[in-house]
Every structure is written in C-alpha cells, then in structure tokens.
Amino acid sequence: MLAFIAQLGIRDYQAFVIAVLVFLLVPGPGNLALITATSLAGMRGGLAASLGVIVGDQCLIALAMAGMAALLLAYPAAFHVLQWLGAGYLMWLGASMLFTSSGAKPVIDMKPGRYFRQAWLITVFNPKAIVFYMAFFPLFIHADEASAWIGLLLLALTVAVLTLIYGFCLSLIVIRLAQGFERKREMVWFLEKTAGLIMIAFALRLAFSGAA
Question: Considering only Cβ atoms within 10 Å of each terminal Cβ, which end of the chain, N or C, has fewer?
Fold first, then answer.
C-alpha cells in the first residue's frame, strides 16, 4: 500500500498522517466551533460542524495549491483584510454566546446547516491555515513526478477523512460529558460563557497577531 502511495509522488505518508492528527488536536476556533455545535445540537450539530471544517480545509488546500497563499503573502494588505474579517466573525460569535441570557435561545443555536456555515466561515477566514497548507503540502510531494497532482488529491482526501473521524470522536466525547451536566444549569451557564470568552480571545489573537 505504501509503495503504491509512493508511486503517486507522495513521500513520508505516515509522517503526513501524524502531522495532520497533531494539527487537529491543537486547540483553536475550529475545535471550539465543533464542541459548541455538539453541545447545542448533539451529534447532528457536531457532524455538521465537522463537515464545515472539512469543506473549509479543502477550499484552503485548493487555494494553496493554486498559489493563492503566495499571492496573499506578496500583498500583505489582502492578508490583513482576510485576517480582520475572520477576527470580526469570531468576535461576533463569542459575543453572541457571552451576552445571550441562559433562558433565551442562543444566536448560534440553529439548524445543522447553520453550524456547517459557521464552521466553514471560521475555517476559511483563518489566513494562517492558508499559509500552513502552502508550507505543509510541498514537504510530502515529489513535484517532479508526473502523477504529483494525484498525490495532492490523495493528501487532501486524507485530511478530509481524518477530520471527519476526529470530529465524530470529539462529538461523542462532548455528548457523553454533556449528559453529566444536563441537570446542572449553573455549570452549563459557566461553560457557555467561558466558550464565548475563549472565542473572543481567539478573535483578538487573530486580529493582532500580525500587527507586530
């Protein structure tokens, strides 16, 4: 199997899989969106958010493969506009969670389709992810191979499959933990407000990380 993968212009496929898993485990807005969607809408919300992250990743991978990342780096103004748009969206989500009263219906508590769009927007408005894929994928591809483009597609598919598995497992964990909190309203309120603060913190970090 690994020999066949190598024929597609891919090198160190095992290392690629490990690197993607580590990338998924790193706390970030995407993970928080997935956890929030699962806590509000169960497995349907978690899977919808997972699919949103997957589609967002595939969009970024396609842009990186097409050279969009290099264009953004060549024109810092475009990069910063994307950065501020992403930060603004995260800020809005965090404020919605923070200032919505517990008795009211949260702004983000909607149908699975909304969780999909939110996760997608959070992913594609993260400019650092574009740079990550631009620098990441070339490490595992032999560009001089005629079938290198097939290898790129396989790597993109690998990212999608691993993200789906990870999202499903994380949703199961969140659901199991939520069952212990369902009668503890104070704890639910605390977790909701904490998640809002964390989302705002992610927004501020994204907005000002490139200011220095």
Answer: C
Q: What is the DSSP string of 49-88?
A: HHHHHHHHHHHHHHHHHTTHHHHHHH-HHHHHHHHHHHHH
CA–CA gap between residue 132 and residue 58 (Å, rounded): 13
Picking from 51, 42, 24, the residue whose alpha carbon sits closest to that of residue 118 is 51
C-alpha–C-alpha distance, residues 112 and 159, integer Å: 22
Packing angle of the helix pair 148-181, 185-208 (nearest 10 deg): 150
CA distance 103 to 76: 44
Q: Which of 18-27, 72-81, 106-115, 199-208 has the lowest mean pLDDT?
A: 106-115
What amino acid is encoded at 104 in this protein?
A
How many angstroms separate the CA atoms of 180 and 75, rounded? Answer: 49
